[in-house]
Amino acid sequence: MLLDDYEEFTESQRKILDRYVTNTQGHIFVLRNLPEVIKGALFSRYSRSTLGLRSLLLKEFISNNEESAFLDIVGQGSPEQPSSKEDQSLAIKKAQNFYDRILDGYGDDSIGELGGAHLAIENVSMLAAKNIEDCRIGGSPLEKSTRYIFFDQKVKGEYLFYREPILMTSAYRDIYVNTCNLLFETYSKLIPPLTQIFEEKFPYDPSTSKAAYTAALRAKVLDCLRGLLPAGTLTNMGMFGNGRFYEQMIHKLHCNNLAEMQDIGKRMYEELSKVIPSFVRRSEQSHRTHENFAKFFEAMRTDLQVVSNLNANFPERTLEPGVRLIGYDQDAVVKVAAALLFANGNKSLTDLWSLCRGLSEEDLIRILDAGCNARENRRHKSPRALEHANFTFELITDFGAYRDLHRHRLLTQERQLLSCDYGFYIAPEIMGTSLEADYVHAMNKAKEVHLMIAAELPEEAQYVVPMAYNIRWYFQVNLRALQWLCELRSAAAGHPSYRFVAQSMARQVSEKFQAFERFFKFVDYEGYNMGRMGQEQRRAEKHSTK
After folding, report:
1. Which of 60, 207, 351, 408 has its CA 20 to 30 A from that of 419?
2. CA atoms of 111 and 39, how far apart (whole Å)
């Protein structure tokens, strides 16, 4: 039973607190109207205090205004009056020592997870977006969609792709710009005729929403043509992350070889320092923590390149696109079954492993069924026991598919540099039409230019690689995360490229371990002509009822 009246506040204290908490008396409440630096410091101090959070806020922050600058940060001398942006920034800077002392006082990196910020990152390349999203834990990114947005716009007469500074001051400047322009021109040129092809092939059904049909048609056209967009295409990102996430990301961006990444890291640090300075200050380039990180990172990168050059100098064997299951645990079924029993009993995992190794296939299946029979849709999450089965996949797929699947964070993944070495994807709907020649010409030209630039500037050359070209990458993923990925990404509304990947991974695991097939019950193995139609129709119906 929760304690009653464990905190007592005066009426004036309640009036003050009411602005910053959703409940001044209850046991559960939410903070509001507080900057991230205060929330982070408050929670940090909370773990080492006998006081409740509201009492702590009053005593050490609001009443300690001379040191905390609380009133200046949140309200120009009054808790009821919001401060201006300028006043708040100055106040945060003024009280920096106070917040640094609290956040540093415990020597725990996890303190960095107590404060966060929403960050907008605009007009960066798709290549940069992938580097940013590569930081997995503690951040949630969203990126401009190639399915809903036309990328044929011009600003001041120019297509929107990144003008890489080294390329723009090199002998490759004109050929880089001209090739990117060719890719965008082809993309723009093919939109009307491909739209017409689909309108003739999939005519509008008056029984459905016109808006839904238009949206689904647009999505299908853009899904087919997105492969023409080079990796240098400018995109926008929105992101929420905690301080620890941002600190690690900025460290890595500072150390990246590409000028764009370094610039993004610098700008991120500058902007985040305005709202959560205490959480990111160690990522400033002159800070000893970053200097040590940079020294370590460069030494590791150099050492790994040396051993790679010495040991990985042999002829290529796997060139064909596809998805390959290359690693798994033969005892996976036993370990999952044992883990299912462990969470619902009082026996050791060691003993349960021994037990399950001796069970018949029928008995093992009965245990697995108990862990999945109740699922009615993909949002019903399976037990953590499925995390005891791990799989490694090596993939050669188009960059577009990688771009979509890369955002799954509960797994280990790595890719190699973008190149044109493994061929490119062309939508079946384009093959055999009058549009194919233009598409292939643009792809071949991009390959020619990439090879030319990559001979001298392999990392900068990535910017000219179209999304249709295949890259090699790997997934190491447990069964639970794989279940979510395959059921989500095989849905009818998904892009055919990543639907194929999701379907292939589910099939291969189910073939290797038939007992696990039951965990992929909501994988959609069907093919669809207008995959977005169902979802867009539901969206239209929802809006019509409002």
Report:
1. 408
2. 11
What type of residue sits at position 237?
Answer: M
Give the burial class of 337: count Cβ atoms within 10 A of its Cβ; 0-12 exposed, 13-18 middle, 19 or more buried: buried
Chain position carrying tokens 């207008």 = 530
DSSP code for 57? I
* Structural tokens at position 124: 């960066």
In the block, residue with structure tokens 């459905």 = 208
pLDDT in tens, the chain (546 residues): 455 667 888 999 999 999 998 988 888 888 888 887 788 778 777 767 778 889 989 988 888 887 777 887 786 545 545 455 556 666 666 666 766 776 665 555 677 777 788 899 999 999 999 999 998 888 888 898 898 889 999 999 999 999 999 999 999 999 999 999 999 999 999 999 999 999 999 998 888 888 888 999 999 999 999 999 999 999 998 989 998 999 999 999 999 999 999 999 999 999 998 888 888 989 999 999 999 999 999 999 999 999 998 888 777 766 789 999 999 999 999 999 999 999 889 999 999 999 999 999 999 999 999 999 999 999 999 999 999 999 999 999 999 999 999 988 888 999 999 999 999 999 999 999 999 999 999 999 999 999 999 999 999 999 999 999 999 999 999 999 999 999 999 998 899 999 999 999 999 999 999 999 999 999 999 987 654 434 543 443 344 444
Separation CA 320–CA 123 (nearest Å): 34
**What is residue 230's DSSP assignment?**
B
CB 74 within 8 A of CB 87: no
Angle between helices 259-272 and 243-255 (to 10 degrees): 150
Amino acid at 478: N
Q: Which segments of 169-258 does DSSP mark as H helices, in order?
A: 173-201, 210-225, 243-255
Q: Which residues contact 249 (CB under 8 A, 6 or more apart)?
A: 132, 135, 139, 241, 265, 268
Please state at what angle helix 173-201 crosses helix 210-225, rounded to 10 degrees.
Answer: 140
Cα–Cα distance measured from residue 420 to residue 434, given in angstroms and rounded to the nearest whole number: 24
Residue among 400, 429, 431 nearest 501 (CA): 400
Residues 6+ apart with CB under 8 A from 348: none
The whole-angstrom separation of Cα 244 and Cα 261 is 19
Instruction: Tell me, letter by letter, the H, E, C secondary structure of 323-338.
Output: EEEEEECCCHHHHHHH
Pinpoint the alpha helices (H) of 388-478.
399-405, 436-454
CB 536 within 8 Å of CB 544: no
What domains can you pick out in the chain, each with its CATH number? 11-113 (no CATH), 118-310 (3.30.1360), 321-425+468-546 (3.30.1360.170)
